[in-house]
Amino acid sequence: MITAAPEPRQSAPWPALRWQQAWRDAVRDPRELLALLGLETLAGRVSDEAAAQFPLRVPRGFVARMRHGDPHDPLLRQVLPLDDEMRPATGYGLDAVGDGAARTGPGVIQKYRGRALLVATGSCAINCRYCFRRHFPYSDETAARDGWREAVALIRADTGVEEVLLSGGDPLSLSNAKLAELTGALAGIPHLRRLRIHSRLPVVLPERIDDGLQAWLAGLPWPVTLVIHANHANEFDDTVDAALGRLRGAGVHLLNQAVLLRGVNDDIEALADLSERGFAAGVLPYYLHQLDRVAGSAHFEVDDARAKTLHAALAARLSGYLVPRLVREVAGDTGKRPL
Ligand SMILES: *Cc1c(COP(=O)(O)O)cnc(C)c1O
Ligand code: SF4
C-alpha cells in the first residue's frame, strides 16, 4: 500500500516573523468573522458597544478550528462580543482579583510566597471575552516599560523570590530579542530557581514558537514551565501539536490551565476531552479556574455547586494526573483557593 509521507513537522524550520504577519492579519470585524463561519444570522446578537469597549481580535488559524455554521461553537463563544456582556451584574467589578493591591512595582505583582509575577506586556494575539484584561489594557503598567530596570531590581532585592512568572497580556507577544534582554538581566540573580511563562500563544498563534524562540528557551539557565491556556479540546490541531512538540524539544514542562465557562466547557465530555487531548500533545492539566468576576463576563459563570459536581465526575472518570485542580482566585489569599 502506498501512503503519503507524513510531513516532517519537527525538523522543518519555522521562519522568523511569519507569526507577526499572522498576528497582524487577525480578524477584527465581528461581521467578517460571522461571514467566514456562515453565521450571518447571528449578527443581531453582536454588541457594537461591547466591541468598542474590548475589540474582537482572533487569529485566522484559530478561526479555522471553529465549526462552520455552528452558532454554539465553543471557540466562537470565547471571542464574539455579545449583548450579554452589557447587562449589569452585581458582584462583577473591574479589579476582580485584587491586582491593584498586590502591585509591588511597575509591572510586578506579588501575591504568593516565593513567586513574583511580571506583567511583561499588555498585548495579546486574541481577545477573550471573559478576561480581566478587557478593563486593563495595561498599556503603561508593564515591566518592559523602563527596559525591565525597576522590575529586575525589585526581584534582585527580594531574596525570597525563587520563581519568576512571565505573564501579561501575553509575554510571548514580545520579540525574541526583548525576551532575551529580560532573561539576561534576571540570569545574574542568585536566588532565582525557576522560570514560568503563562501564554495562550502556543494555542492561538502556534507560528510564534519559531526557531529563535526555541533556541532562547533551550538556553535558559533555569528549569522552565510553560502554562498554556486552552479551554476546549477543539483548540488543538496539527499546528498546535507541532508547536507544543517544539517546546518540549526545548526541555520545557507543559501545563494547562482552563477557565470553567458556561457554554464552552461546562460538561463532563468537554472537560474529559480537554484533559485527554492536551495530554496527547504532551500537556498535563494544572488548574480549572472558576471565573474571575469581571464586569461583562457574568454570562460565562458556572455556579460553585455545579462546578464541584463536574469536577467530582471528572475525578471519577480519568486517571488522577489528568484531573486539574478546581480553584478560585480570591483577593488576599495566600494561594489559589481549592473549591
Ligand atoms: C496565580 C498567580 C501565581 C501562581 O500561583 P500558582 O498557584 O503557583 O500557580 C503567582 N502570582 C500571582 C500574582 C498569581 O496571580
Ligand atoms: S490574557 Fe489570556 S485570557 Fe486574557 S485576552 Fe489575553 S490570551 Fe485571552
> Shape, please?
globular
CATH homologous superfamily (4th level) name of the largest domain: Aldolase class I
How confident is the prediction overall: mean pLDDT? Answer: 92
**Percent of residues in helices:** 25-40%
- In terms of DSSP E residues, the strand content is 5-15%
Q: Walk across the major sheet and give the strand order.
A: 1-2-3-4-5-6-7-8-9-10
Please compute the radius of gyration using only Cα atoms. Answer: 20 Å
**How many helix segments?**
12
Main sheet, how many strands, which sense, barrel? 10 strands, mixed
SSE succession: HHHHHEEEHEHEHHEHEHEHEE
The secondary structure category is alpha/beta
Provide a descriptive summary of the structure in words.
It is a single chain. 30% of the residues lie in helices and 13% in strands. The protein has 339 residues and is α/β, with parallel strands linked by helices. The protein has two domains: 19-86, no CATH class; 103-338, Aldolase class I (TIM Barrel, Alpha-Beta Barrel), CATH 3.20.20.70. It has a ten-stranded mixed β-sheet with strand order 1-2-3-4-5-6-7-8-9-10. The protein is globular. The relative contact order is 0.13. The structure holds pyridoxal-5'-phosphate (PLP) and iron/sulfur cluster (SF4).
